[in-house]
Amino acid sequence: MDEIGRDLSQLSINRFDVFEKWLIDAGAKFPDLELRTYDTPTDDSTNSSDKESKLPEKTEQGSDTVNDKGEANSDKLLIGKGGDKGTKEYDEDKEMRGVHAKTDIPAGNTCVVVPRSCLITVEMGRATPLGQTISLANLDLDAPKHVYLMLFLLQDRKNPDSFFKPYYDILPPKLSNMPIFWSKQELAYLQGSYLLRQIEERRAAIVTDYEMICAVAPSITAVATLEEFMWARMCVCSRNFGLVINGVRTSALVPHADMLNHYRPRETKWTYDNSLQAFTITTLQGISGGDQIYDSYGQKCNHRFLLNYGFAVEMNVEQDGFCPNEVPVVITLEQGGEGGGGEGEEEDKHLADESGVAGVAGTSQQDGEEGGNDSEGGTWNAARAKLELWTRDGSSMSKRVRVCVSNNDNTKSMMSLLRVKVAGKEELKAIMGGGPYMYRSAKDIRFGLGVNNETLALEELSRMTKKMMMEYPTTLEEDVKALAEGEYGEKGGLRKYSNERHARIQVKGEKEVLRYFERLADTGRKGLACKDEEFEVLKEGLEGGERQYVMEVVAGIRKDERRRERREKE
């Protein structure tokens, strides 16, 4: 680093000195901790091979739309803003920061105390004139709590004499690691991923919030441009903590606490201590001197880490081996129009009668007949029954389910939808035979309907996953190779902490989920078709969710089939 670079870096360090002094003067306590800034990825003193470095922003534990940060866990990892190795130009947007122990800290130690006076809360933003105007307008904002925090931040940071100025001075001026700020070239790294749509939805939601606020409070334009509003939204959503302060549930920005990096399983816990009137962080285990102090951002799919935090976890695996990475799959019920399949429409081929004509969706049922009879011909209207079951939950013809490498409820819902989608008339009669509400919706068929139906469902699953795989420009094997070829750009590898690397980690994780379901579909079909002795061998080679599915569903179908065969012989 040249002399100018050192001077600029020193200015940054001085900002953090001022920040820490401000907190201590206000009554904050963290005597055994220190902030460290890493100029390059290799400066991280943790030197742990299973940790990466993270952005200094903290994000909340929310759903796909960002919610308040909770106290769950995630795998061991340090994620930070990565600078180019060997760069001479100091760049705040590429520095990494972390909180380290200056000495050994025992378990159960309250290592951070931040007084209420240093917290920025939702109520403070709502109390501003702009906040009151927005509150009275009763706007349908995408993230109202975040907006009030943003309003205070955006207005107060313009005051050079603000009490919070030392805090504002250490906030990152840019958030270029956040996907909503990525360039078109960087977004192209996510080609094939549903995350691209979520990024657009997040961007659109922020724009809509800004425009709604402008309509009722035009003075907002003097406080923040749209770009500044977007910066504040992601800064707040990645840093706020959901707290209960004196009995009031709120969200708050907590200086210093929001600089702890992500690590799983969690080593610390945090809360608002009403007796101390302060936010506290307590160690759950001993921390050695020099080691970094972590918070846990929770068990999350990488798409949430990347969208809300600006990083992806390369080994996003829990201690029990579970990987929370997900892929959203869309299952659409194909129904022809009245008269059967106009141009551009697809009939339900699984409901064709002997003449090859699919049942007509929309034909009325006779009153009082469960399952429904055709009002004209007296024959059972399978297409109408399927449509009624499919839309019973009030959703559309296309249903999206997030699935991971697991035999959890979402996987079971996906398989249920596939069973209904490919169901023929006899299978639908069996489903509806116990009354129209025996199954609440098309997601509730949790057991196989027979060899033929399950085989067709698995074929549909295989077709669906293969089609999704083809949307990506690279294969899973190519992703694995690229991520393994060096983390600092050597040998064509992807630079550590770069947006490209995090994007590649994200799509690799999606492909691993899709590959799992390709394998599940193949294994399930083999299990349905093989002989008993072959099935016993097949079962022995399975584990995890794949084994659970085969034992719960495939084995059950085979058992029912053997019973049917015995009855026919009798």
From TrEMBL:
One of its GO terms (biological process) is methylation. It comes from Triparma columacea. It comes from the Eukaryota. InterPro entries: Rubisco_LSMT_subst-bd (IPR015353), Rubisco_LSMT_subst-bd_sf (IPR036464), SET_dom (IPR001214), SET_dom_sf (IPR046341), SETD3_SETD6_MTase (IPR050600). Residues 34-95, 356-379 are annotated as: Disordered. GO terms for molecular function: protein-lysine N-methyltransferase activity. CDD domains: SET_LSMT. Pfam families: Rubis-subs-bind. PANTHER family: SET DOMAIN-CONTAINING PROTEIN, UNCHARACTERIZED PUTATIVE METHYLTRANSFERASE. Residues 75-298 form the SET domain. Residues 38-48 have a biased composition (Low complexity). This is SET domain-containing protein. Keywords: Methyltransferase, S-adenosyl-L-methionine, Transferase. Residues 49-74, 82-95 have a biased composition (Basic and acidic residues).
